[in-house]
Design brief:
Elements lengths: L3 E10 L8 H9 L2 E8 L6 E10 H12 L4 E3 L5 E3 L19 E3 L7 E3 L9 H5 L5 E3 L2
Helix pairs in contact: 1-2
Length: 139
Protein backbone atom coordinates (compact mmCIF):
# COMPACT_ATOMS: atom_id res chain seq x y z
CA UNK A 1 0.00 0.00 0.00
CA UNK A 2 1.36 3.44 -0.96
CA UNK A 3 1.81 6.20 1.52
CA UNK A 4 -0.55 9.16 1.22
CA UNK A 5 0.86 12.59 0.50
CA UNK A 6 -0.75 16.01 0.28
CA UNK A 7 -0.03 18.44 -2.54
CA UNK A 8 -1.22 22.00 -2.90
CA UNK A 9 -2.48 22.81 -6.38
CA UNK A 10 -3.76 25.89 -8.13
CA UNK A 11 -6.05 25.15 -11.06
CA UNK A 12 -6.86 27.78 -13.70
CA UNK A 13 -9.98 27.03 -15.73
CA UNK A 14 -10.77 28.44 -19.16
CA UNK A 15 -14.33 29.71 -19.31
CA UNK A 16 -15.49 26.73 -21.36
CA UNK A 17 -14.57 24.27 -18.57
CA UNK A 18 -16.08 25.90 -15.47
CA UNK A 19 -19.33 23.94 -15.53
CA UNK A 20 -17.81 20.44 -15.43
CA UNK A 21 -17.74 18.38 -12.19
CA UNK A 22 -13.97 17.91 -12.26
CA UNK A 23 -13.49 17.82 -8.48
CA UNK A 24 -16.22 15.19 -8.15
CA UNK A 25 -14.28 12.90 -10.51
CA UNK A 26 -10.99 13.49 -8.67
CA UNK A 27 -12.67 12.14 -5.55
CA UNK A 28 -14.67 9.35 -7.22
CA UNK A 29 -12.28 8.02 -9.85
CA UNK A 30 -8.87 8.77 -8.33
CA UNK A 31 -9.64 8.23 -4.64
CA UNK A 32 -8.35 11.68 -3.69
CA UNK A 33 -9.30 13.75 -0.68
CA UNK A 34 -9.81 17.36 -1.75
CA UNK A 35 -9.73 20.42 0.49
CA UNK A 36 -10.61 23.66 -1.32
CA UNK A 37 -9.03 26.82 0.12
CA UNK A 38 -10.15 29.38 -2.45
CA UNK A 39 -12.31 29.21 -5.50
CA UNK A 40 -13.86 31.30 -8.19
CA UNK A 41 -15.54 29.07 -10.70
CA UNK A 42 -18.35 30.89 -12.47
CA UNK A 43 -20.11 29.79 -15.67
CA UNK A 44 -18.96 31.68 -18.77
CA UNK A 45 -15.90 33.11 -16.97
CA UNK A 46 -12.36 31.97 -16.35
CA UNK A 47 -11.95 30.45 -12.91
CA UNK A 48 -9.49 29.13 -10.38
CA UNK A 49 -9.28 26.74 -7.47
CA UNK A 50 -6.62 26.60 -4.78
CA UNK A 51 -6.77 23.22 -3.10
CA UNK A 52 -4.97 20.44 -1.31
CA UNK A 53 -5.25 16.93 -2.72
CA UNK A 54 -4.36 13.96 -0.57
CA UNK A 55 -3.76 10.47 -1.90
CA UNK A 56 -1.00 8.29 -3.24
CA UNK A 57 1.58 9.91 -5.55
CA UNK A 58 0.29 7.70 -8.34
CA UNK A 59 -3.37 8.68 -7.84
CA UNK A 60 -2.48 12.38 -7.62
CA UNK A 61 -0.46 12.13 -10.84
CA UNK A 62 -3.34 10.36 -12.62
CA UNK A 63 -5.82 12.91 -11.26
CA UNK A 64 -3.70 15.85 -12.44
CA UNK A 65 -3.38 14.28 -15.89
CA UNK A 66 -7.18 13.92 -15.98
CA UNK A 67 -7.62 17.60 -15.04
CA UNK A 68 -5.23 18.66 -17.80
CA UNK A 69 -7.46 16.98 -20.43
CA UNK A 70 -9.88 19.88 -19.88
CA UNK A 71 -7.30 22.57 -20.80
CA UNK A 72 -7.00 23.39 -17.10
CA UNK A 73 -3.61 24.80 -16.16
CA UNK A 74 -2.16 23.19 -13.04
CA UNK A 75 0.29 25.15 -10.91
CA UNK A 76 2.01 23.14 -8.20
CA UNK A 77 3.14 26.13 -6.17
CA UNK A 78 -0.51 26.42 -5.21
CA UNK A 79 -0.16 29.88 -3.79
CA UNK A 80 -2.30 32.83 -4.69
CA UNK A 81 -1.21 34.91 -1.69
CA UNK A 82 2.20 36.50 -1.83
CA UNK A 83 4.16 38.78 0.48
CA UNK A 84 6.52 41.42 -0.86
CA UNK A 85 9.45 41.50 1.55
CA UNK A 86 10.61 44.86 0.16
CA UNK A 87 7.24 46.52 0.86
CA UNK A 88 6.84 44.98 4.31
CA UNK A 89 7.83 47.40 7.09
CA UNK A 90 7.70 44.64 9.74
CA UNK A 91 5.10 46.54 11.72
CA UNK A 92 3.63 43.19 12.83
CA UNK A 93 0.02 44.31 12.39
CA UNK A 94 -0.76 41.21 10.29
CA UNK A 95 0.61 38.68 12.78
CA UNK A 96 -2.39 38.35 15.14
CA UNK A 97 -4.74 38.01 12.17
CA UNK A 98 -2.93 34.97 10.70
CA UNK A 99 -4.76 31.87 12.01
CA UNK A 100 -1.99 29.41 11.07
CA UNK A 101 0.95 31.57 12.12
CA UNK A 102 2.29 31.56 8.56
CA UNK A 103 3.09 35.18 9.37
CA UNK A 104 4.97 35.46 12.64
CA UNK A 105 7.70 37.28 14.49
CA UNK A 106 10.23 34.50 14.92
CA UNK A 107 12.97 36.58 16.56
CA UNK A 108 11.87 38.97 19.27
CA UNK A 109 15.19 40.85 19.02
CA UNK A 110 14.83 41.81 15.33
CA UNK A 111 11.00 41.95 15.38
CA UNK A 112 11.01 41.02 11.68
CA UNK A 113 7.88 39.40 10.30
CA UNK A 114 8.61 36.09 8.59
CA UNK A 115 6.31 34.33 6.13
CA UNK A 116 6.12 30.55 5.86
CA UNK A 117 4.24 30.03 2.60
CA UNK A 118 3.64 26.32 3.27
CA UNK A 119 1.55 27.16 6.35
CA UNK A 120 -0.62 29.74 4.56
CA UNK A 121 -4.25 28.68 4.03
CA UNK A 122 -5.07 31.76 1.96
CA UNK A 123 -7.68 33.19 4.29
CA UNK A 124 -6.56 36.59 2.97
CA UNK A 125 -6.73 38.27 6.38
CA UNK A 126 -3.22 39.65 5.82
CA UNK A 127 -4.33 41.30 2.58
CA UNK A 128 -7.25 42.99 4.31
CA UNK A 129 -5.23 44.32 7.26
CA UNK A 130 -1.76 45.18 5.90
CA UNK A 131 -1.53 48.98 5.94
CA UNK A 132 1.33 48.94 3.41
CA UNK A 133 0.00 46.46 0.83
CA UNK A 134 2.85 44.00 1.36
CA UNK A 135 0.48 41.04 1.06
CA UNK A 136 -1.44 40.57 -2.17
CA UNK A 137 -3.44 38.05 -4.14
CA UNK A 138 -2.69 36.62 -7.56
CA UNK A 139 -6.40 36.78 -8.31
Amino acid sequence: MSENVTKKLMLFFPKCECEKPIIYYLVKNYDLIVNVFRAKVTPEEEGYLVLDVTGSEEDITKGVEYVKTFNVTVNFSGKGVTRDAETCTHCGYCVPYCPTEALRIADSDTREVSYNESECIECMACIRVCPFGACSSTF
